[in-house]
Amino acid sequence: MKKALFTLMLLFAAGMAANAQRFALIDMEYILKNIPAYERANEQLNQSSAKWQAEVEKIADEAQTMYKNYQSESVFLSEEQKTQKEEEIIAKEKEAAELRRQYFGPEGELFKQRESLMRPIQDDIYNAVKEIAEQKGYAVVTDRASAASIIFASPSIDISDEVLAKMGYAN
Fold first, then answer.
1. CB-based burial of residue 34 (10 Å sphere; 0-12 exposed, 13-18 middle, 19+ buried)?
2. Is the pLDDT of residue 116 over 80?
3. Residue 4 placed within a domain
4. 23 - beta bridge partners?
5. Which of these, 165, 167, 132, 109, lies nearest to 25 by C-alpha position?
């Protein structure tokens, strides 16, 4: 009987400890929208992207123009001239594809620039969230902006404004 009562008390205590875990939410979109450095970084990325896209499109347009000219002139060209023109067109298309990969590929310039501009902001947010979580004893802090499975969450557990204040962006 004493063992059963002790086991029951132990299970009750474990259940209470599990219930005592605290949770909080942040809204990363809201936080980022309220950080001026993020907006500046985004604008800089958009400008770079537009500039690089224009370069790629210029070369692709040149290849397209070369191809149209080739089609209209092909009846007047010898086989050797046709082969030479085709190779020039292919080389221009490859140049455009290589430039696109260099700028927009998985390890391209845009990725590197985004990493260098956004990493410090993300690190600051992470550190602020971590400090608040440690101070207030939160076991889990979830981003409501990326957690599609959250149907409802009480606004009382949203610590986004606290994170902004911790980073020096009072709202």
1. middle
2. yes
3. no
4. 140
5. 132
pTM of the model: 0.71
117: closest CA among 37, 46, 48? 37
Q: Residue 27 CA to chain centroid, in angstroms?
A: 15
Residue 143 lies inside a defined structural domain of this protein:
yes
Task: Kindly state the greatest CA–CA separation across the chain.
Answer: 105
Decide if pLDDT at 25 tops 70: yes
Domain that holds residue 82: 17-166
110 close to 48: Cβ distance less than 8 angstroms: yes
**Residue owning tokens 């896209």:** 53
What's the pLDDT score for residue 155? 79
Average pLDDT, the chain: 86
Q: Which two tokens mark 23?
A: 């949770």
Check pLDDT > 80 for residue 19. no
Structure tokens at 42: 């985004």
Q: How many domains does the chain have?
A: 1
CA distance linking residue 139 with residue 121, whole number of Å: 23
Q: Is 77 helix (H, G, I), strand (E, B) or coil?
A: coil
Count of all residues that appear for the chain in the document: 171
Q: Is 12 domain-assigned?
A: no
